[in-house]
Amino acid sequence: MNSLYLRLNLTAILVICVFLAATATVLDNAYWEGSKLALRERMLGMIYQLLTASQITEQGQLLMPLPTDLPAPQLALPKSGWYAFVSHPPDTQPIWRSPSLIPLATPEAFPVSVGEKHWQELHLADGKAYYLLGFGFQRTVKSGIYPFNFYLLTELAPIENDLRVFRQQLWSGLAGAAILLLTVQTWLMRWGLRPLRQVGKELSAIEDGTATQITGYYPYEVKKLTDRINILLEQERARQTRYRNALADLAHSLKTPLAVLLTGNETHEELTQTVHEQATRMLRIVERQLQRAGASGSAIAPPVAVAQLCERIIASLNKVYRWKNIHVHCHIDPALHLRIDEADLIEILGNVLDNAFKWSQSQIVLSSHKHGSFVVLKIDDDGPGILKEDIHRILMRGVRADESTPGHGIGLSVVAEIIDAYQGELNIGVSELGGALVELKFNEG
């Protein structure tokens, strides 16, 4: 099942069906129990009316009212569905039967203790279901105490019919509610998933070449996805541009050493030395251009601890330039992390710090701060600095390694291209220490 819309719809249908089935079961049981409770209350009320209407003689004989005087008219009508009889325990044979019970056989009675009530569901010979209430009481006269059991019997068919009607109405209502809920849910899902469908359309447009990035306005949750997709698309375009530029620069850079080899008039020994020098030079050029083309620019790489990486690079450069006795002050926040490929960050900081060590007189200062949505790394040195007229040239695409300005210019074109791949900035200025200031800006996201 690859359709998210279908998954959500089926899940919603399942949840609604389970919920409505549970609701129907609870309401059905509640209605049935409520109906039986109401029936019990009614039966108990009729028992109390019969007790009130009955009398007992001094000899202990129970006198019941005439059929026309019965408190419940149903008890006087044959087969009315309401029946009553009285027994004198421990004998279970009835000593009085209501006129409504005359056509029917008296059900087998069960003895009930004085003051107690007993309920029972039973089926009689006619095949119908009945509800039987037994109530025990006693009367005291001069001749003694006489216990009696009053019984009231009624058919369950009326409340079963009511339950059947209630169930029909209940299920009809729930079915209507289910259809309404599913209709609304379907519309809500289509509305909720519309941004994803729109993203799919924009991706198709990008694939067809009619668009270059996702430009629509999307909810926050989807926007995080579209922003990442746009970053990946931009990185892919930048990577392709770097490869094209690297190939162009490589071809341009190899012209001079190849021309030297082709036009040389040296002796055998001189030719051997020239070939070695130019081959070494071409190897450096090839490595340089591959390095520039290989900058990954991955903005979704794991976060890198900047301060720790700087300390590692500084420790290595201190060994290389130990004779200069450079003092490095690192004020980078230990908690600072950048989402950048570690190899790219090593290439960036390695080039910049190598230039700083090479041209610094005595000290280098590293610092960091946040500026809007950017994290800024600053490297100051007290060297001779870089002339303003040289800054643009050393950062131009196409400057070959062997033709870069000596000192700070070496490697900065590579640094600029890598930072550009991360939508960052490289700025070069004058340091407060009197030398060069290299400012690296990285997008915090």
From TrEMBL:
Broadest EC class assigned to this enzyme: transferase
Domain HAMP per the UniProt entry, residue ranges: 190-241
Record key words, sorted: ATP-binding, Kinase, Membrane, Nucleotide-binding, Phosphoprotein, Transferase, Transmembrane, Transmembrane helix, Two-component regulatory system
Any single GO CC term annotated in Swiss-Prot or TrEMBL for this entry: plasma membrane
Localization terms from the record: Membrane
GO molecular function: ATP binding; phosphorelay sensor kinase activity
Pfam families tied to this protein: HATPase_c (PF02518)
Domain Histidine kinase: 249-445
Keyword Transmembrane helix listed: yes
Chief place of localization: membrane
PROSITE patterns to which the protein is assigned, alphabetical: HAMP (PS50885), HIS_KIN (PS50109)
Catalyzed chemical reaction(s): ATP + protein L-histidine = ADP + protein N-phospho-L-histidine
TM region(s), chain numbering: 170-188
Enzyme Commission number, as recorded: 2.7.13.3
Protein name, as recorded: histidine kinase
Protein's organism: Methylocucumis oryzae
